[in-house]
Amino acid sequence: METSELLKKVRQIEIKTRGLSRNIFAGQYHSAFKGRGMAFSEVREYQYGDDIRDIDWNVTARYNKPFIKVFEEERELTVMLLVDVSASQDFGTRNSLKRDMVTEIAATLAFSAIQNNDKIGVIFFSDKIEKFIPPKKGKKHILYIIRELINFQADSAKTDVGMALKYLTNVIKKRCTTFMISDFVDVQDYNNALTIANRKHDIVALQVYDNLETQLPDVGLMKVMDAETGTERWVDTSSRRVRQVYQDWWKKQQENMQTSFNRSKVDSVSVRTDEDYVKALMALFKKRS
């Protein structure tokens, strides 16, 4: 993309997403994610009604009566975006490519974080870590992130969600809120990595998909290619059985994904490329508030 075209695109996304984060998401973002980061403050004697999970057993043993740990809300959060840049993101049939919607969602969340005085960082991933942008504050940092979201070209076409989650767990030492934005089409099992990551951090899953991915159209013999492997094959979409097999696969894939989120206690939302992602984010924020 030419520099002038890139800057124009950056400006367009900045205007749209900054307005959304300021006018629509400001209060919802704060109530949904503030207070999730807690720092130890002091200990005090246990009082009736206190959560027994906060008991400091070392101090309790020393004084022979129960004491609890007191926490206070951290004044700022660290927000990480885990952005899927595999080849499957370059697909879309209606209003936009999946990649375009991922970019807008990520930019909106980035502006929401900055307006709440939080740091924001990004991990671009395929089946490897493509780029790591450490969390920082400031408009200059946000615009750099948006430029990378628009213009980034991955080295690999494949996807490995589990690998990205393991990297997050290792590289970010302090607890953070992480938005993982992907289509979550991954042949590898990421359940364990997701569970471990969500114990250390606050993981939120945002699935972006296209309506055509949910079912095959009846258009006769069609040549299809797997964007991540490059494998090509002819498919007879006029066959009802073929269309049903594909639809069953998609349904099973969605069920497995949701099961993973539920088991790992990860909040999630799914949005199609022909839908309004604003409504999806609002629903997510409301659920967490």
Automatic annotation (TrEMBL):
Xref: Pfam families: DUF58
Gene3D superfamilies (UniProt xref): von Willebrand factor, type A domain (3.40.50.410)
Superkingdom of origin: Bacteria
Record-annotated DUF58 domain positions: 42-255
Xref: InterPro entries: DUF58, vWFA_dom_sf
Name the UniProt record assigns to this protein: DUF58 domain-containing protein
